């Protein structure tokens, strides 16, 4: 099942830096897309992935960057197709 993780840019930047650059998790995070709000206000990074990849990202976040955990848990709890 495809899911779409949304995370603020500052958390995104700090999360992917903590990941091993040769890992699949890093590659998934680097596929994130910057999306601007409807009125040009605010930005969010959208990370399309499948549910198992989101679960793996959650495990990595728990180890290296707990601040990203809530955003990932949210999409796992209520998965939606991107």
Question: How would you describe the overall organization of this protein?
Answer:
The chain is an alpha+beta fold and 82 residues long. The chain has one domain (2-77). Helix content is 49%, strand content 22%. The protein contains 4 helices and 3 strands. A 3-stranded antiparallel β-sheet has the order 1-3-2. The N and C termini lie close together (10 Å).
Strands, helices and their partners?
Elements (H helix, E strand, L loop, with lengths): L1 E6 L1 H10 L5 H7 L2 E4 L6 E8 H14 L4 H9 L5
Antiparallel strand pairs: 1-3, 2-3
Helix pairs in contact: 3-4
| Alpha plus pi helix count | 4
In total, how many beta strands?
A: 3
Total individual domains: 1
Portion of residues in helices? 40-55%
Let me know the largest β-sheet.
3 strands, antiparallel
Structural class: alpha+beta
Report low-confidence residues grouped into runs of 5 or more: none
Mean pLDDT: 91
Instruction: Describe the global form.
Output: globular
Share in β-strands: 15-25%
Strand order of the largest sheet: 1-3-2
List the secondary-structure elements in sequence, H or E: EHHEEHH
Rounded to an integer, what's the Rg over CA atoms? 12 Å
First and last CA, distance? 10 Å
Summarize the structure.
By secondary structure, the chain is an alpha+beta fold.
Attribute tags:
alpha+beta, 82 residues, three-stranded antiparallel beta sheet, globular
């Amino acid at each position: 099942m495809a899911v779409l993780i949304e995370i603020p840019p500052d958390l995104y930047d700090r999360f992917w830096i903590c990941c091993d650059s040769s890992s699949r998790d890093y590659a998934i995070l680097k596929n994130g897309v910057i999306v601007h709000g409807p009125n040009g206000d605010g930005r969010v990074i959208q990370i399309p992935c499948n549910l198992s990849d989101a679960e793996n990202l959650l495990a990595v976040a728990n180890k290296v960057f707990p601040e990203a955990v809530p955003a990932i848990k949210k999409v796992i709890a209520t998965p939606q197709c991107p």
